[in-house]
Amino acid sequence: MLTGSDEERHTGHEAVARAGIDAAAVKPSECDVSRAVDLPVNRVAIDYEGREHFPDADTLSTLAAATTLYVTTPVRADGFDPLGDDSLLDRIPADARRVLVAGHGAYLDESEAERAVSPRLGAARETAPDAWVGTEGIERVALAAGGTQFELLSRSTERDVRALRAAGFDGEIAVYAPTVLTDDEDAVLDAVGAYVSRRRPVARALPDGDGSGDGVENGSEARTQSTDATATGRTREVLSAATRDFALVGSPEAVGERVADLRDAGVDRVVGYPARGIEAFLA
Fold first, then answer.
1. 3-state percent helix, strand, coil for the chain, nearest multiple of 5
2. Which of 150, 140, 141 is nearest to 171 (CA)?
3. Which of 154, 153, 147 is nearest to 170 (CA)?
4. Are 161 and 262 in contact (CB under 8 A)?
5. What is the pLDDT of residues 99-154, one digit of tens each?
6. Is the four-CA dihedral 108, 109, 115, 119 of positive or negative sign?
7. Is residue 180 packed enough to be buried (19+ CB in 10 Å), middle (13-18) or exposed (0-12)?
8. Interatomic CA distance for residues 198 and 220, integer angstroms
C-alpha cells in the first residue's frame, strides 16, 4: 500500500509520463542534483551555472550509475577549455556524456567570453565524439561540428526541424524547454514569465516601462512591469502567449500533444527543465 508521500510521487511520475518528456535538466544552484536519480526519466542533464556550482565527482558518478547522464560543459570556460585549462573534466565519469556549449555570458569572465568558440568546439568534439552540441547563438557552427543538435524550444522549432530533415540532416536532434505541468496561468507565469520575457521576439513585443506600449529590442532595464503572475494588460497577454511558444506548459496531456508534434517534426529527444522546481516532477 502506498503512503501519502508515495501517492504524491506516483502522481508526479504519472504526469511526467503523460507529458512524454524523456529527459530532465536540473540546475545545481537550485536543488540537490543527487535527487535526480528519483526523476521518472532515463536521461538527466546537469546544467552549468558556474564553476562554484559544478557537482563533485562522487555526485556525478552516482548519477551516471543510475541514469544516462549528460553534463553541460562550456568550451570557453576554464576547466572545460580543450585548448587550455580542462581540469574539471576529471570530475566527469567515463560513462557520462557531455553537452558542449559556447557558454552563457553570465557564467563567463571577460577573458573567457572573448575566446573563440569554433576551434574549441571542434577540439572538444574530437575528444567527446558522442557529445550533444548546444546550438543557441552558434547554430551554423554547431551544425558544422556535427553530433546531436541540442536546441532551445522556440515558436519556429517544428518548422526548423522539418527543414533540417528535408535537407538531409539525419543526426539526432534534442530540444530543451522549461516545463510547467499545469494550466494554472498564474503558476505558469510565476515559473517561466521572466524566462520568456528575455527571448528576443518577446522582448520586442512587450510594452516598455513607461506604459506607452512601444516594443523594446532587448528587454531594456527601464522596463518596470512585472513578468510573473502579477502581470496585467498587454504584458500579461504577450507573456501568456509566449509561454506556449518558448516553454512546455499546460496539463500533462496538453504538453504531451506538443511533444508528439515535435517528434512528428523530427525531434528525437525532449529535455524538460522543471521550472517550478525538481519537486514538481517528483510529487
1. 45, 15, 40
2. 150
3. 147
4. yes
5. 999 999 999 999 999 999 999 999 999 999 999 999 999 999 999 999 999 999 99
6. negative
7. buried
8. 10
- Can you list the domains of the chain with their CATH numbers? 4-182+250-282 (3.20.20.70), 185-242 (no CATH)
Write the CB contacts of 106 (distance below 8 Å, at least 6 apart in sequence): none
Q: Write the CA distances from 17 to 12, 14, 241, 255, 281, integer angstroms.
A: 9, 5, 25, 11, 10
Assess contact for 249 and 185: CB atoms under 8 A.
no
Most distant pair of Cα atoms in the chain: their distance: 59
- pLDDT (tens digit per residue) in 213-222: 444 434 444 4
pTM, entire model: 0.89
Decide the pairing of beta strands 68-74 and 43-46: parallel
* Identity at 275, one-letter amino acid code: A
For 265-277, what is the mean pLDDT? 97
Exposure of 63 in the CB half-sphere (CA atoms within 13 A): 30
How many angstroms separate the Cα of 134 from the Cα of each of 115, 175, 195? 17, 10, 18
- The Cα–Cα gap between 220 and 269 comes to 34
Contact by Cβ (8 Å): 252, 12: no
